[in-house]
C-alpha cells in the first residue's frame, strides 16, 4: 500500500473523535479499518461525519473536508433493475411487403437487411419502414 502524501484529514478527525469518546466501539473499528485498508466507505464516512459534527473542539474545516469527500463518492444503489416488458406487436403488413419484394428480387441486399432486422426484432424502426415502403412502391406496384 502506498503511503499517502499531504495532510490526512480522516485520520485527524478519527483521532479527535477518539480523544473525546475513548469507549466508542464504532470509532475504534473505523480507526482499525482505516489503518488496515487506508480508506473508509461512504457509509463509514457518513457515520464519522455525524459523530464529528457533534463535537465542538474539531475544526470546522476538517468537518467540511469530510463532507466534501462524502459528496464526491458515488451512491451504491442495490435495488434490482426492472425491465419494462414491451409487448411485441406482429406487423403482418411489413412481413407481406418483405415477402413480395423478395419473391421478385431474392438478392436485393437492402431488403434482405430489412428482413433480417424484422426477423430479429419483430418490428422495424420508422426509417426502416419508410425505406421498405419506398422499395415496395418502386419494385412491386
Structure description:
Helix 1 crosses helix 4 and helix 5 (92-104) runs antiparallel to helix 6. This protein folds into two domains: 9-72, no CATH class; 92-139, no CATH class. Helices cover 64% and strands 0% of the residues. The mean pLDDT is 85. It starts with 8 loop residues before the first helix and ends with a helix. The protein is mostly helical.
What is the topology?
Layout: H1 9-20, H2 25-37, H3 42-53, H4 60-72, H5 92-104, H6 109-121, H7 126-139
Helix pairs in contact: 1-2, 1-4, 3-4, 5-6, 5-7
On the 0-100 scale, what is the average pLDDT? 85
What level of helicity do the residues show? Answer: 55-70%
Structural class: mainly alpha
User: How much beta, percentage-wise?
Assistant: under 5%
Q: Strand count, sense and closure of the main sheet? A: none
Distance between the termini: 74 Å
Number of helices: 7
Number of strands: 0
Shape: rod-shaped
Total count of domains? 2
The string of secondary-structure elements, in order, is HHHHHHH
Extract low-pLDDT stretches: none
Global Rg: 32 Å
Describe, in short, the structure shown.
With 141 residues, the protein is an all-alpha fold. The chain has helices spanning 9-20, 25-37, 42-53, 60-72, 92-104, 109-121, 126-139. Helix 1 (9-20) packs antiparallel against helix 2 and helix 5 packs antiparallel against helix 6.
Amino acid at each position: 500500500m502506498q503511503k499517502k502524501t499531504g495532510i490526512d484529514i480522516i485520520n485527524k478527525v478519527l483521532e479527535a473523535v477518539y480523544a473525546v469518546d475513548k469507549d466508542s466501539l464504532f470509532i475504534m473499528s473505523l480507526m482499525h479499518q482505516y489503518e488496515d485498508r487506508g480508506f473508509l466507505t461512504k457509509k463509514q464516512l457518513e457515520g464519522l461525519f455525524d459523530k464529528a459534527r457533534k463535537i465542538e473542539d474539531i475544526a470546522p474545516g476538517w468537518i467540511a473536508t469530510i463532507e466534501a469527500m462524502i459528496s464526491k463518492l458515488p451512491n451504491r444503489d442495490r435495488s434490482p433493475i426492472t425491465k419494462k416488458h414491451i409487448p411485441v406487436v406482429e406487423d403482418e403488413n411489413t412481413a407481406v411487403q418483405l415477402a413480395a419484394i423478395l419473391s421478385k428480387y431474392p438478392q436485393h441486399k437492402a431488403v434482405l437487411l430489412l428482413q433480417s432486422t424484422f426477423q430479429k426484432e419483430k418490428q422495424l424502426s420508422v426509417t426502416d419502414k419508410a425505406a421498405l415502403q419506398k422499395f415496395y412502391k418502386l419494385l412491386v406496384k
